[in-house]
Design brief:
The protein has 6 helices and no strands. By secondary structure, it is mostly helical.
């Protein structure tokens, strides 16, 4: 049996989350400070990390969280503004129990709901 042939040319380099954190932020602590700076004085992040702390979260999750927080903070002033925008798209802005339930969801889940509703909403042309 012949050995598999290796392709000549470019080899694909795998970038691990640790390498990406070190390249973009320098260290995990710097990434955590950046996330905290983006969420300061805003209720964007829920109390999800209160038990163990955000320091014990993996690098991959922190990178994903940083991308999500930057995207949400560009578009909305707070978590409540995101929920309100979603409720406006769904024409349920007066539904207070549903709003309270949405406030318990994670940021990623609410943002995904908003994007789906935005895609399904008829365009105003």
């Amino acid at each position: 049996m012949a050995s598999p042939k290796k392709k000549k040319g470019k080899e694909r380099k795998i970038r691990t989350p640790l390498v990406e954190v070190k390249e973009r932020f320098g260290s995990k602590d710097a990434l955590i400070k950046e996330i905290e700076k983006l969420t300061a004085k805003k209720d964007i992040l829920a109390e999800k990390f209160a038990e163990k702390g955000i320091e014990h979260v993996s690098n991959a999750k922190l990178l994903r969280l940083h991308g999500l927080v930057t995207e949400v903070s560009k578009q909305f002033s707070s978590r409540a503004a995101l929920v309100d925008a979603y409720l406006e798209l769904k024409h349920r802005s007066k539904d207070e129990p549903y709003r309270q339930k949405l406030m318990t969801y994670t940021l990623g889940r609410v943002y995904d709901l908003y994007h789906v509703a935005q895609r399904k909403a008829p365009s105003k042309a």
